[in-house]
Amino acid sequence: MSRDIATPGLAHWTAVLAGTHGLTARLEPLDGEYDLNFRVLTSGTATHVLKVMRPGCDLGLVELQCAALAHLARTVPAVPLPRVVPALDGASVVTRDDPQGAPRLLWLITSLDGVAYGNFRPQGPALLGELGRRVGELDAGLADFAHPGLARNFKWDLSGAGWIRPYLDLIDEPRRRIVTRICDNFDARLAPALAGLPSVPIHNDINDYNILVARDAGGQPRISGLIDFGDMAAAPAVCEVAIAAAYAVLGQERPLDAIGHLVAGYHAVHPLSDDELALVWPLLLTRLAVSVVNAAMMQRERPDDAYVVISEAPAWRFLELAGEIAPEMALAQLRLACAKPALPAAPRILDWLAERRGSFAPVLDEDLSHAPMADLSIAAPVPRDPFALEADEAAALGGSVAEGEPARLGYYAEPRLIYTGAAFRNGPYGASDRRTVHLGIDIFAPAGRRVLAPLAGTVEAVADRAERFDYGGVAILRHETHAGDAFFTLYGHLNPDVVQRLTPGQGVAAGETFATLGAPHQNGGWAPHLHFQLALTTSGFGHDWPGVASPDEAGLWTAICPNPAALLNLPDQATRHKGPDFEALRAARGARFAANLKLSYNEPCLFLRGWRHYLFDAMGRPYLDAYNNVPHVGHAHPRIQAAATRQMAVLNTNTRYLHPAQTAFAEALTAKLPQRLSVCFFVNSGSEGNELALRLARAHTGGRDMVVPDHGYHGMTTGALDLSAYKFNGPGGGGAPGWVHLVEVADPYRGRYRGDRQAGAKYAAEVDTALAAIEARGGRLAGFIAETFPSVGGQIIPPPGYLAAVYEKIRAAGGVCIADEVQTGLGRLGRHYWGFEAQGAEPDIVVLGKPLGNGHPLGAVVTTAEIAASFANGMEFFSTFGGSTLACVIGREVLAIVDDEGLQENAETVGDHLLAGLRSLQERHAVIGDVRGMGLFIGVEMVRDRETLAPATEAAGYIANRLREFRILIGTEGLHDNVLKIRPPLTFGRDDAEMLLDRLDRILGEDSCRAG
Ligand SMILES: Cc1ncc(COP(=O)(O)O)c(C=O)c1O
């Protein structure tokens, strides 16, 4: 069935358009609620949109739009808007009969590039900011536009939103309560406030399907169009912002941030007054209330139309969630986004306090000006486990301060990992957000110490919050500046008898003792100290003040709860935590290191702490480490810490002396290997290991030539580099030396024998060619070296039988077989402790590195007694640091931990779960060409086309960078850099796999991945 038949009138309107505008074009119907809209294609490209208005449509309404667009084309030509194309007779709007003979108004506008914003993902900060700016420019451009059609009285005029009240009972409880509250607030506060604002021409319907997004030349998404002026009206400008914001927040994980970007963009080009800003959040809620009430009305009319319910679901989800957001905080956030103080009174209050610094009564009856500071930051090893503060640690925090010793202070705005309780976590995963940023100053002093009011106030709230790691006794005082601006001070970790001492409303004089410091059993379990916090809020927060903020909300919370140092007669600078300066570090690194010392990610990471498979940045944001295989048993493993600390305290020397640690490690390692591999050499790195393995092979065979799979990596020293096609055939490389003979990497997905059941044998046969080449050049074979499973080559799992067949050929030709197990060894593969086991092959030399020392520089080469004997030709083997006492103790401990903690089994079960999850993502996302792996050695290959396997390199890079924004670390690898490399510490759990899968799924649905 042709579209012409499916859409009655297509041929008719095609002919009409030719007559009215002289355009020979093909029409395609577009969505439209009441009117007919057609995409107009001339020579195959969309050039225009033909709008045929509903029968009986008011001419004035169309003229209004035409006039507005013509006006905007003059006033703000840079804003991407459609232009009206006049008919041949010069008129913007013409009337023609439809096929039924009814007269219809018809007009033509230019078409704009792009997809609907509503279908574009991600709707990120830059795009939201640009949207705000564009809408601001649009409104600025309309400022002097006048038209009689602007005075409209219709349901989408937000300043008349009170019309919804009679329909609220169409909505069931508990939802009705939500919209009733919004409606009450509208009538009582918003309607009068709006009445006091000037009405100006606005677009009035910046919804996410009236916004277009297209990519610029650099590939960045940009706002490419604002369309559909059919709801234009005169209203206060803030209605425009609130309507745009009402759509922009839907589906956003951090809605206040999202509207912050939008509103800031708008404000930058079309400034909003304080009064207008104060209306944005409540008007946004009002707009959503109108929307859901309207949907309820439609549903009453069309009860069978499921779409109405579905389309309102995001608005309801948001309205239900918005109840938890204090309007005062929403406003504060918008004000900060617009570079205004969080509260209009904030600068006055802070000045008032600063002027009085030095004259406040001492809160703990002690001069604090020389008090030492405690370091509780991310860089400090507190707590031992950043996910579980222990009671003994809490009770010793800040060091205990004895009577007579000076108090010790804890920094304001210091990010800390000591807040490990569920109340501080936000999300189900280990790497979910947590609150870390301390919003007060701590004063550590003995329990029982008197607490004095620094200035006069009244008791606002008092409580005993007895839960473990809460405040214990807590009091909040309300104060006023001389100008009458209110602010609050909080005193936490008091003796709970403060509840008896104080009653709300009671006055407290400056210098009056109103409480004492609690002991750990009274103060929530902490070392005795006062948590002293200031809050600039008009409402107060009862006694439920957050004492710690999430890093991403720290800007907001530190504006509401600024540094209280002035009230302690202390300088702000000395009491405010200063973390590492990111930009300064970056610059210093650039100055001190060569340019080829690379940083990962577009936006580099700065980590200060690690734990298991998590890393923490300087603000304490947790990152899920799905990338680093060096911390094999987890970052900062306590057993490694303990073993290393103990050994460093007694002896760390070299292999020229006897020491039990050296033999213990060698025995533990060889116990994991085939019996023939019985002689160990300890070195400092994988490179040094491979270098040595090459020497062993040459010493044993008398040959020099090596056979190596293509695209491998064996290290950065001269010999290892010569074996690494990944490097010598990569940027800056000089190609293969004559003694290195490459064979095709046995890649079952991208390689020559894809899908061939005999692939293992066929790839192995490549070795024959290499051996023939050696013979042809008059060389002599030393051996074969391969990463057992090629990693930089793209996390490749060779076909079964490959390695065994290669080894057979090499040995038959007199060579030795070297397994580079730097990436695959020590249980990572789950079912197998070594990669060669998975291949049913047994090497003559095994090289180990990365995971063996869990971060301590430690490599090993293990070989047969015969090869070792050939190497022992009189020249001493000695590596100064290799096999040091410390290294051996650590290596031994790593091997023990893998066994004791069942990490190989964990790699198997979690790896299987993750692989299954990735395969189900592959079913839904065409950009995933291949999912492969074993245990926690996993590759996900991205392709633009599953037939041609055209690599989706950009998508892979995009995903890695986006995952970093979601705080998950992975890498990209492969010949085309299109393989996601997932290779976490072996402690990685099922939950972590779930988090990775969830975020990956979201990212794969984003525009950059869909495009391939
Ligand atoms: C397979 C393989 N071999 C050897 C090395 C070199 O190890 P190192 O960096 O410790 O010298 C690496 C490093 O990435 C590797 O992946």
How would you sum up this structure, described in words?
There is one protein chain. With 1012 residues, this protein is α+β, with helices and mostly antiparallel strands. It is built from 30 helices and 40 strands. The protein has an eight-stranded mixed sheet with strand order 12-13-17-24-21-20-19-22, with no helix packed on it. A seven-stranded mixed sheet has the order 29-35-34-33-32-30-31, sandwiched between helices. Helix 24 (835-838) links the parallel strand 33 and strand 34 (845-848). Helix 17 packs antiparallel against helix 26. The longest helix has 28 residues, at 274-301. The chain is flat, with a radius of gyration of 35 Å. Bound molecules: pyridoxal-5'-phosphate.
Write out key terms for the chains shown.
7-stranded mixed β-sheet; flat; 8-stranded mixed β-sheet; disordered N terminus; binds pyridoxal-5'-phosphate; 1012 residues
Structural class: alpha+beta
Please estimate the helix content.
Answer: 25-40%
Q: What share of the residues does DSSP label as strand, in percent?
A: 15-25%
Q: Unreliable segments (pLDDT under 50, ≥5 consecutive)?
A: 1-6
Question: Helical element count?
Answer: 30
In whole angstroms, the N-to-C terminal distance is 32 Å
Spell out which ligands are present.
Answer: pyridoxal-5'-phosphate
Largest sheet geometry:
8 strands, mixed
What is the total tally of β strands?
Answer: 40
Oligomer description: single chain
